[in-house]
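Pilot study result, target chain (411 residues):
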Amino acid sequence: MSSPIEVVLSDGKGSIYGYCDDKFRSVLETFVANFEDREEQGASVCFNVEGETVVNLWGGRMHPRQESEWQEDTMSVVHSVTKAAVSICAHILICEGKLDLRAKVADYWPEFGQQGKEGVTVAMMLNHSAGLAAIRAPIKEGGFLDWDYMVQRLAEEAPFWKPGTRNGYHMSTFGWAVGELVRRASGLSLGDYFRTRVAEPLGLDFHIGLPESEHHRVSRMMRWAPKKGDPVSPYTVALLQSKESLQYIALLNNGKFKTDAPESYLCQYGAGGGIANGKGIAGMFNPFANGGEGFVDKVGLERMQAASVATNEDVTLVSPTKFSLGFMLSMDNRHREAGALETIIMGKHAFGHAGAGGSVGFADTECHLGFGYSMNKMGAGILLNERGQSLVDETYRCLGYSTNEPGYWVK
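Predicted structure:
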């Protein structure tokens, strides 16, 4: 293990702190390059191998309005990495026999069984094939903060396609769709179940519903600002073409939800409101990179990483996607015109989730890697960008992997 790290960045960008095993020194160099060459503002990256934390780095600055450096315990909204936390909750309950993948959602949530959703199964909710990728009628102002209201709206909604026949990313609805199953099966709210069953036993700084006493540690997010000539994904094209499009309402029919409002930190927005840092994310995936003991059994771990749906055109994202039951798998769309915005490349046996703007977390059961990266300056796209992907790539190189040409890292 190397001595503690302090790297002073140029032009008042702050400093990088932490520690990094000598074997992974090039990951530190890549992290520094993200700040110096790729406009990183504030970020953290952490990963463990075979249960041992070998890299834990943080640095840069919080949002400019906060006028503070990113500290070891600084957190940020990790957007859809939250979906992985929700899915972990569901898989624990499945292994405990409290949820059945083949059972109908209406068996647990009777109000859900209407408008053509009577046959929707638990598995369909997890793999984005339930057809509930958005809500058509306008969400009331503040609706995303009201769990019961959103759950009722989902129960009353008609699917956008025949459930089980296609998959389309449930961008904003996933947290209530799966989270309500967690609530019905466990008797606890989503945030409370995650906290008591996962976060507290593992000592994680990862929250679905952050107590007000901790809000001062959260760096606000800097939204991505497109530049002339930037590539545009087919998803964005569809969103801009029509306010009636699935793409538009999936993202923007949100009751004026504000990512960085105190009330948003407090609410249990399971599709994208989780608050964490790289260490918290990596720690969440650590058990599942190493057998899942205490959380899932051997079969359960296989379910988490096995492909459940794959398509050449995701109904929502308008690009090829691949998911297990609740998790993103490696998706290589580099061959497409805006493919870097639609890509996340991990190992063949890895499962996890990217968050809008570039945060990411995953477990790789082959090399026993639990990985986490969070940041406060969003990049383009819903999956990874050069900053996060470069860190993932360098980590695999350090672990002896030679190429990602097949669309995933192989030795």
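One observation from the pilot: Residues 18 and 223 are 26 Å apart (CA to CA). A full batch analysis is planned for the follow-on phase.
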